[in-house]
Amino acid sequence: MRFSTLLPEQAQMRKPQLPASPYLIVATCCLSVLLVGMDVTIVNVALPAIQHDIKAPISGLQWVLDAYTVTIAGFLMLAGSLSDRFGRRLIFLCGIVTFTLGSLGCAVATSPTALIASRGFQGLGGSMLNPVALSIITNTFPNGKERARALGIWSAVFGVSLALGPLLGGLITQTIGWRFVFLINVPIGIIAIMLVLRFVPESKAPHSRRIDKLGQILLFATLTSLTYAIIEGPRAGWNSRTILSSFLVAAAAFGVLIPYEHRQQEPLLEVRFFRNIPFSGATLIAISAFGGLASVLFLSALYLQQVRAFTAFRAGLFLTPLALAMMLCAPVSGWLVSKRGTRLSLFLAGLAIVGGSLISTHLNTTTSAGVLVLSYLCFGIGIGMVNPAISTIAMSCMPMSRSGVAAAIASTSRAIGSALGIAVSGAIVAAGRAKGMGFPEATHAVWWTITGSGVLVAILGWLTNSRWAQNSILRQEP
């Protein structure tokens, strides 16, 4: 009698958390990084086909990319707070469902507006994937060495997904059409949903941060208004009422955001973190480096297919060295950081970015394949070297009790850099084309801008390791 009474209760208690190997949980989380990682590079190769099929202007192509990145940047930190409060498994599952539905919407879109809206919805799901998956992995592996091994698997999958993106995107676009670039996410998402439901246990933070609603609204208003003004400025006119109003809204929202967040006990954006010079430096490095990367991917996809008349697959082949260099240089940078600190990695990263962009300042309609590959290799080396250093600075100069928030800000800065890079590079090219320049010549100003970004990465790499910077580190109790 006693056995029959307790058995249903035991079954009910065990149902949400079926016994699973911790590495099954890691594999499930890695599917999310496969989705988001491939989306970084796979869509760029499909842009010319998308432009031809749904008659999107260059500003429309910018929005196809930026609707995704701006939404991720705007909601990344909110997703972390929601997962701590309502459960990491729940928010992770919501993210996969949203990303999968957004991908399906992209695949069936018949107009630029529908595609951009679906990309925004896809980005909303993406904001709930990587940071929450990292929290799940961290809580699954309390042992430091096992956690490092699990995070190494995670990082390797991200690198592979980046490397797969250009080739897979080119092959899919050329053979069965650009819509399947998005449709490929649907079966992966369905598999991930099934695995999460079966294997991933629920977990919450002991003390969840409150939801900073006004801070969230102000942050998103700042990002969207600024991005809109930069993308639409060349078409609408920089002196037009719409563009000036957008810049004004962005400035006003940001002007209110900073003092408001400074007064909050549990703000969305920890403004006082930025008094820490290494942390501020890492944020600027992330914006500069990933702004350059997004510009390279965006402009190269258009140049290779529209100017050089390469097939989508061949364009993907040309961009693959960039992704492979990112994948291979990331562990090298991690090793250098562990042995020598972040200064050398960041100096080499800045040098590589400068080298790649200087080569591209002479881009024309007959630039040789060897020069193009060398340029892409340099960019890949630079981003591969910079990424582990950014994460190390952001995490090591903060108390452990604040590491999650610091990581979220670092991830947000990468997304902001990508969004601004696409917006600014597109605006520069549009201005050049309006003056009668050919596409390659119109991009020269972009490459010089990225050269400046590489110099900034190297300078900030030195500055963040200086004695003055180290003395500014916040000394808080864990």
CATH class of the largest domain: Mainly Alpha
Main pleated sheet? none
Number of domains: 3
Q: Low-confidence parts, pLDDT < 50 over ≥5 residues?
A: 1-19, 474-478
Shape: globular
Number of helices: 19
Please provide the ordered H/E string of secondary-structure elements.
Answer: HHHHHHHHHHHHHHHHHHH
Total DSSP E strands: 0
Over all CA atoms, what is the radius of gyration?
Answer: 22 Å
Task: Tell me the CATH architecture of the largest domain.
Answer: Up-down Bundle
Roughly how many Å apart are the termini?
A: 50 Å
Mean pLDDT: 85
Describe the model.
It is a single chain. With 478 residues, the protein is mostly helical. The chain has 3 domains: 19-200, MFS general substrate transporter like domains (Growth Hormone, Chain: A); 213-263; 269-473, Growth Hormone, Chain: A (Up-down Bundle), CATH 1.20.1250.20. The protein contains 19 helices and no strands. Helix 3 runs antiparallel to helix 16. Mean pLDDT is 85; it is low at 1-19 and 474-478.
Brief overview, please?
This protein is mostly helical and 478 residues long. It is 81% helix and 0% strand.
Properties at a glance:
478 residues; mainly alpha; Growth Hormone, Chain: A; 0% strand
